[in-house]
Amino acid sequence: MTDETQPARTEHYHGFWPVLLIGCSMVLILIWEIHLGIDTRQNAEHLRDQQLHVVDQAQRVQGELEKVVRALVDLSKTDDAAKKIVNRFGIKVNNPTVPTATPAP
Q: pTM value?
């Protein structure tokens, strides 16, 4: 038997496995990106909730502090010790109401 009597064997390659592997990789990358997006959104919502809590707390403290300052200024009209504190720190009450929101720049 010589090489001439055997039929020539041709290698047949097809793209099934490379395409399957690339497709699986793309699906995994897509799932990972979606997961990162969900995590980022949840973290942003959590941070926003924390900031809203801090802002509410700051507004409450500001309101209480303004009451104390107004009372101190009113007291300074009749009390010398309160008048010294107001003069020493330059405390003045400019507006009669507290603004509800700060203007946007």
A: 0.54
